[in-house]
Design a protein that fits this description.
about 40% strand; elongated; disordered C terminus; 9 strands; 4-stranded antiparallel sheet; about 10% helix; mainly beta
Length: about 160
């Protein structure tokens, strides 16, 4: 069976940055399960997997515009310490989810100066070329319920951003 829209796909992957540093991997963990054609993974990886079959192995390099987008300076904000429940626990590199007018975003503390906290709302992988080493483990038809909900259900299915 070939990977195409409305197929449930299970992959093992390793993700490295431009310097070859490992960012994330499913190897030895739960494989990634997603519904193809429903924006469950970044566009560049989904395009690279289209037409592949079980057992296929591929290495693909995804530019930022087909991954998590370019880094946007407008998504860096300075907020007051009073906006945090536990400001004493904040340090550079702390990540937390916050609601924005565009929905929930992951924010990273990038500077702390007195009562001002600078946060970056860009995705941590924004602006990066992403290198995936992927093995296709399983391809199956999605159930009616999975198609109605636009995501995978059942064992081994979990939400990941890749």
């Amino acid at each position: 069976m070939m990977i195409s829209k409305d197929k449930v796909v299970t992959i093992d992957y390793s993700l490295t940055d431009e310097e070859g540093e490992l960012i994330d991997s499913s190897v030895g963990e739960e494989p990634l399960v997603y519904l193809h054609g429903h924006h469950g993974i970044i566009p560049g990886l989904e395009q690279a997997l289209a037409g592949r079959r079980v057992g296929d192995k591929l290495e693909v390099s995804i530019p930022p515009e087909e991954g998590y987008g370019d880094w946007d300076e407008d998504l860096v904000e300075v907020v007051g310490v009073e906006d945090f429940d536990d400001p004493e626990e904040l340090e550079i590199g702390t990540q937390f989810e916050t609601m924005t007018e565009d929905g929930t975003r992951l924010a990273t503390v990038i500077d702390i100066e007195g009562n001002e906290i600078t946060v970056d709302l860009n995705h941590p992988l924004a602006g990066m070329t992403l290198n995936f080493d992927v093995t296709v483990l399983e391809v199956r038809d999605a159930t009616t319920e999975e198609l109605a909900h636009g995501h995978v259900h059942g064992h081994g299915a979990h939400d990941r951003d890749h």
